[in-house]
Batch of 3 targets.
Target 1
Amino acid sequence: MNPHRRQLLGWGAAAAGAALAPGLRLIELAQARSPQEAASKLQRWGLLIDITKCTDCDVCVTACHEENGVSGHGRPATDAQWIRKVSLRDKRTGYAQTLPLMCQHCEDPPCVDVCPTGASFRRDDGIVLVDKHTCIGCRYCVMACPYGARSVVHEAVSGQKAGVPRGKGTVESCTLCVHRVDRGQTPACVEACNRDGGKAMAFGDLNDPAAEIHRRLKSEPSSQVRADLALNTGVRYQGL
Amino acid sequence: MARVHYREIEGGSGGYYALLGALAALIFAGLVAAWTMEHEGHYVTGMSNRIVWGTPHVFAVFLIVAASGALNVASIASVFGRDLYKPLARLSGLLAVTLLAGGLAVLVLDLGRPDRLIVAMTHYNFKSIFAWNIFLYTGFFAVVGVYMWTLFERRLNLYSKGVGLVALLWRLVLTTGTGSIFGFLVAREPYDSALLAPLFIVMSFSFGLAIFVLVLMAACGWTGRALGEVVLKRLRELLGVFVATVLYFVAVHHLTNLYIARQHDLERFFLWEGGVYPALFWFGQVLIGGLLPLLLLFGTASRRALAAAALCVILGGLAQLYVLIIGGQAYPQRIFPDKEVSSSFFDGVVAAYAPSLPEVALGAGGVALALALTAVALKVLPFLPRSLADGDVGGSTA
Amino acid sequence: MMRIAAGIVVAALMAAGCADAEEKRARRIALPVFKIEKGGTCVAPIEEMRRDHMTMLLHQRDRTVRQGLREPRNSLGNCIECHASRETGSVLGKEGFCASCHAYASVSIDCFECHTPLRRQRTAARP
Ligand code: SF4
Ligand code: SF4
């Protein structure tokens, strides 16, 4: 469908001038959900990360924090991190590995269960988000997340990216680049990994039989981190 | 039994106003601290992305747990019909309310967005134990309020047993709820224990009674009310039993963990290697909060010893909650079992934490708020009996 | 806080300046600046926008965040695209569209604690 036409349908002619901002990618838009279509239960967005291809690089981290305007104040203990590289060493064999770790977009997310106001929620398509309008900053979700995936915004933020609100006193974590996904793009980390990194990350709809990620999960071994907690994570790993 | 005569405290002396002034100063400091934390952001505190609940939560949980326990004396009087405790019931109810108010104030002012309190009141996620607690806490105010009414209003006295029973059950649920805030965190091994809820209940008995004893002794002493040995002996024994029970539960908790192989690292951390946490456990919680009070309570019959024991219980209780809340977060999450883990986000290492001034000020402000509310209430309404001398309290059925 | 403070200031000024109120107030309280640099009409009649823009934003915000419905019509981003100043590219600042009116009405805005007040692309301001 012609993106121009779609936009016009939604906006009315008056606002169309602004809508046709440059930089929209036609090919990606062609697969995007229309703005009038709600996130669907039929989909489940997820990642598959092959850590045998993951090396000592951190382009995913840089790309994520650049895309989402996550900048620090030089205070590692309180600066936010949406994604981080974790180094592993087997205690017995000494086998060393490295992998990117972010919100695992659990199907049964403990963060959502504990949130008193319902600010932490799971969108119908499986993306776990914080509604910063209703987050009161109690940090209970940070206590509950088994992956240490959440950060508290410890100080005032400025220079936010359009489409990625961030503000002091609320909690945040990886959004699976929901603003990009809704435009039909892949998350920034995946894009960067496949462009400049080890091509270890794949993004897609776990439920879609035609998706590469679905096919690979079906035919190749993969695992979840802390599978014992039975959270059915949307982020899966290979080679762990 | 002679009818108990209650009387407001005079509350006109210089000492009374000095006390209120000092408490007001502490409350003010707490408010300044809260404002700073909200205005600057939480980076000005010792809290971080790894220790998200810090000293304010130690104080808040302590006050909330103690609030429920402070109601003990009233419950014993109304529900279990012990006449000896009856004259003390009103003060007991009062403390339950004021301590809870102090604790909740700390909790709320520590939020990242305290300005959104209204959101917390209008948006509920009924799966969240936290949301349940909001109801349990507000309900507690209501139930204790009605209960106090039945105690004050002679015509309603006969309902006090029934309402007292509701209050008793309510606070048991409330403390279970508070304990479950931690108990439901599957992701954190230190909290992963079924013993946490009962442990919180016995802790509440012990902390609440300790505060009650101190407030009672201070109030009687400063207003020149007689406080007889009969009452004190009872309270002494009761406190002793509670302290011993807490120690017992703590021991069972650690022993069961020691029995489970995968919990060995955890126990080594909390009992031996974890730096400040084992130190606080052994010296703060066990020695000062447990053994010393037992010695003071059962070793002598002096009033000073009772007061000292109560103070020790309070200090030990704070140490215990510090170890539980902050130590529980400092201990690294086991995301990848069997692996040594490292990252720029403090994975696999013990998270550093040191209490900061704003946090301590906020916590102390909450304590001051509870005490100030108590002091004012004692002046406004007749909470205290005119005398608790041995001849004036019903000792026969006690 | 801001809101209360601003309220007190307004009240004090009103009381003080009864005589030559108009003139004095005009000098002391900056009147809101409605500089809309882009032609065309808003998404609803002006009266409705003045009265209900917050409700419209609130409604859209929940649809967008919760359901992923990114209808641009009532979105904050859409407001900013048209109403941001040409020089600063922002709806905040002294003469910013949102800020100046909210300052006049002494109602605090929470939006820009988290959202950027800047237009997406400056070039989008082309007529
Ligand atoms: S990984 Fe953590 S933050 Fe993400 S959904 Fe699961 S519990 Fe929530
Ligand atoms: S910090 Fe915010 S998102 Fe997290 S549990 Fe509290 S209210 Fe919910």
Target 2
Amino acid sequence: MLYGKLGQRVQVRHLSKSFGKISALRDLTFDVEPGELVAFLGPSGCGKTTALKTIAGLLPGHGGEISFGGERIDHLPPNKRNIGLVFQNYSLFPHMTVSENIGYGLRMRRWPLERRAARIREMLALARLEGLGDRKPGQLSGGQQQRVALVRAMAFMPDLLLLDEPLSNLDAGLREDVRADMRNIQRRTRQTTILVTHDQEEALVMSDRIVLMNQGRVEQIDSPEQLYSMPATEFAARFIGRGNILYGTYLRDGDVDAVRIEGLDAPLSASTKAPAVGPAGSPVAACIQPEQIVVSARNDAETLKSRWPRAFIATGKIVDIAFHGGSSVLHLDVEGAGVLKCRRPATEVQGLRFGDRVAVGILDCHLMPQSE
Amino acid sequence: MTGGEFQESGKAFGGSRGTRTRANLPGRFRTGIRIGRIALTAYVLLMLALLALPIVLVVVASFQGGMEVASRPDGWSLSAYEAIPTNYWDALWFTIRSAFWATICALVLAVPAAWGLVRGNLRERRFVSALVLLPDAVPSITLGIALLALFVPLGLSNSFAGITVALTVISLAMALRFTEALMGGVPEELEQAAVTMGASRVTALTTVVLPLLAPGLAIAALFVFVHNLVTFELLLFIAGPRATPISVQLFSDIVDRGVLPQAIAMSAILVYVGIAFHTLVAMTVGARYLAGSAMARKG
Ligand SMILES: Nc1ncnc2c1ncn2[C@@H]1O[C@H](COP(=O)(O)OP(=O)(O)OP(=O)(O)O)[C@@H](O)[C@H]1O
Ligand SMILES: [Mg+2]
């Protein structure tokens, strides 16, 4: 037992909560495996904080079940649930030192003094705060405060750690460092964790799985890779927000999926589709990742055709081009399809200029049901 | 509790405005502003004089043995203080004791009540908050009569307990307004954090909320105590020979025998006590809090 015990599986079933007429959570069901970091991702007001507070027991009067290792805990008051919670603004006790803050949960659990001191030292080391134990929170930087809040909530070995937008109070520069720190601490301790965020990148980078929420409901639960490459719904695709989305009709030709887009003279082939797509002929949204669009430097379609025989070829014009380190991002005004975003290795698009006419190839897309 | 910063920023604003106008405004307008500033300064000084003059008058008179200040510029002495009879000292001590206990009781009652009002999200909160203001809206003399009617059958009139209870009741309003404002300034999330770490709600209150409230409560206690010390109308009817607050004692003596030097001296002592307490609090918790609490009280 280096940092803590390996937790238990967390199961949440049909969780619901309303504030008067507003139902903030509807039938929320998910599991968190021991040692896993799950992100709640969703737009503002979709119920992420409500979900966390309900799980922590701070919002009584909800429906559904919460259990740790098969044992129901939703009837327990918040101080008996053994859940660590880190608030957006950290909520460190300003009148206590860093050590006293970290030791608070241990004091409440009546740990003997020596064991408490040892645990506080361990936590200070984990958060790289050695020597700062006697400071007051007000004398720490934002990043240090954040780490104190994190280890304070972990010190008493909770079965589940809840983090509500833990990075949103930090400046952009610091955020990446702290994010790496947090991920590192979580991996080393194998602390079962739920992280709330509305930042897709944060969720993609940090979590083992993502619970994508929309208006109090689960939209999709998947690994970051799955969510990114195969969003289940148009909402998911838009929220993850990298792809180009076009509307069309689902075509099925033998084993091959494709989509007919209004305005394009040939169908686009689709290698993947979400399970909820209806039968052939139903309306679909097609998500084209920027990496799945190619351009030809010399305005000749033949090169593209020979290199990518299955690609859909059209003509377009570069309306924006920006160099991003190893890759370049182009915005192409494609005939019949509108402006599409394309990302290629910088070497491949060398010599292309703003305003150039180019041949555009669409290699692949992913199909999803349209959202109303 | 931002009263201190408030004042500072106000000062800074006034200063910068002054320099800017001097730099780039035409002459006549500038003169106008200068006259305006002089008038404003005079106005402020006048207000201060009106506030401080009666107090200064009492203090000066206490060293001169009478209210006819101008007539005897020479006779500075402590004779008026020496002439204070023991029943005055008894009355003062009585008042201090009962004001002290009333202050403690009021705060002890007010903290949980304020906690309930602020955290309980009671729908009745606004009603209760308004109800608490009632003693301010009703003349104290009316409350005094009501207390008399209530206390006589209970045997509480003309007793230390009766006076203390009366003071507790009246200071509860003030104490509750203070503690409500103070409690509102402690983020609920601190309590929630404590609770998720295993504290019961009461433990969260005593280990997190109360320590954070402590400086503010000290100020509240000061105001309530000084207020209790000089309460008069409320106690006029329920006081008696066995329970005489100093205010009632002075009143009846002055009515019976006129403004005697020892009464003036005792009034001056009340002034000293008030100033001493303000200084004490200003020194222990800082003048910033003094300004802050005054704001909170108004709010
Ligand atoms: N105490 C409350 N009383 C009434 N409605 C509430 C309350 N708390 C939250 N809500 C409502 O419930 C919904 C979900 O709120 P919640 O705070 O959980 O959203 P969120 O996903 O955390 O948003 P954000 O990203 O902005 O923090 C919102 O519509 C909100 O207005
Ligand atoms: Mg939130």
Target 3
Amino acid sequence: MLEIKNVTISYQDRPTVKDFSMSLKEKEIASLVGESGSGKTTVIRAVLGLLAGGGRVTEGDILFEGTSLLKNTPDQWRRLRGTDISMIFQDSGAMLNPIRKIGDVFVEYIRTHENMSKGEAWKKGVEMLERMRLPSGDNIMRSYPFQLSGGMRQRVGIAMAMTFQPKLLLADEPTSALDVTTQAQIVRQMMELRDEYGTSIIIVTHNLGVAAYMSDWIIVMKDGRISDSGDRDAILNGNHNDYTRKLLEAVPSLGGERYV
Amino acid sequence: MFDEKDMILEAKHVTRRFPASGGRELTACQDINLKFYRGKTLGLIGESGCGKSTFMRFLVRLDVPTEGEILFKGKDLTKLKGEELRQTRQYIQMVFQDPSGSFNPKMKIRDIICEPLLNFGRIKPSEKDVVARKFLEAVELPGDFADRYPHNMSGGQRQRIAIARAIALEPELIIMDEATCALDVSVQKTIIELVCRLQKEKKIAIGFIAHDLGLIQAFAHQIAVMYLGTIVEILPGEDVDKAQHPYTKALLSAVFDMNMDFTKKIESIDSEIPSPLDVPSGCPFQTRCDHCMERCRQERPALTEIKPGHEVACHIFGREE
Ligand SMILES: Nc1ncnc2c1ncn2[C@@H]1O[C@H](COP(=O)(O)OP(=O)(O)O)[C@@H](O)[C@H]1O
Ligand SMILES: Nc1ncnc2c1ncn2[C@@H]1O[C@H](COP(=O)(O)OP(=O)(O)O)[C@@H](O)[C@H]1O
Ligand SMILES: [Mg+2]
Ligand SMILES: [Mg+2]
């Protein structure tokens, strides 16, 4: 459903991500891992046509269901984003308008993509929140973002991203700002989306444990290039790539190496 | 468990309440009792807002508790004043998550490292260059970094500078507040290895705040688990897998680990942590616990030793009155 072919992405004509390729089928989850600055965010923002700072795809192609995304008009992007492809960020709270109630933002979001009355849109919003196991969706719709915890805001972000049952979900460090128990809730919810709706997911994370648990495919990036990629087993148990091995060894593991 | 004559700092019945809106009170720390030992690391773990930083700040006297005492080599830190406080401070240092906040960006690394030493009259200005090089080497950085400014360095290098400055005064206790959580894992590993080496060489006691059990258990000698301002479990670092408190167990099951069983279903606690403004009476964990009994709603469980070095605050293990 998604195919990224030999893509080079440049900021101000300086190539940052080089010769990147991957493909993803329906219901598959792939994770992008690697140290900060290796180009993970750049790759998934390119898929959604949302590169910041004048970033551009200068070589290669990105195909979504067989059609190139690179030639999309602004109008085509509007129809695609939030419906067929959606994205969740590290802090969905930052994306929500701090001076508007969750419900107002949610209703407006639904109505820009679907012809619905305000009342119907409100009901749909509440339903989505409750599906994300947020207690009393009605209450949350009436809250301001600052009245919710980081984990709750993140679940609101996921609820919005899932409203139109996207075929592809792009998640950029969705749990990095969260505590471990909240992280577990979010990981479980993303897995349920895949199981229930068949959503394909690309997740960027620096938590190799999360990547390993969720993913069919793992792509290791280094300095803008793919340094290693394969299915979970090949990455975790393969011993061919030095950089991957070094990365894996650095992850503290329960019952693993102790320094004292 | 540890040799009591190695104990250098003891917190006794430490409580901190902050005034909150509407005349209410927020209890950030509630009756905390912890001991720090020479050459050993105490790992303090718990979710954000549970009171970890509030507690550790008392030890470096950035704040004083509402109740309780903190005994450092027999003296109550909470009561020290003036010159005695200033002198005592050099023996307890702190390293933060983002050290750039505590560096003057206009100062060269040489001056950043030597500033506290000059303040306490430990070195002469003419010795700065030699001393800076010595401590840069101790944290495995090239000596010519002395001429650099902090913004010309990576996050991991800046964290090494913060450690160099902290060890320069030869402290007996170093507090590290999430000092590695902004770093990439491979950099984190090198910093932890460095800290462990320095600890062994200089017999420094370390208080390390983290929210990652996998990380803490890799080098802590004792682990204290905090929930809503109280310590719910204390256990030896090598025994995390023998944790007994339902909250510690929930933390453990929420860790995604490369060696885990990937077919395991995630059991997550769905409910939210109560606000520290509304800490329930009785056990703080009662609203999220699967084993909650009537007694848990009435009476706060006290830490009870179940094995040497292992204490749990849970009525399942508590003795009946
Ligand atoms: N808006 C931008 N303008 C210029 N360079 C950028 C921009 N965003 C990212 N970069 C550069 O691209 C590289 C990759 O960044 P990024 O994709 O954010 O990495 P990651 O998400 O893996 O941490 C970095 O060197 C970064 O400095
Ligand atoms: N100076 C302060 N005034 C009021 N409340 C505070 C203050 N410092 C911390 N708190 C509150 O105390 C609680 C514990 O905070 P903190 O110790 O920073 O937690 P942690 O370090 O475990 O994340 C939080 O609810 C926080 O909002
Ligand atoms: Mg990124
Ligand atoms: Mg803190």
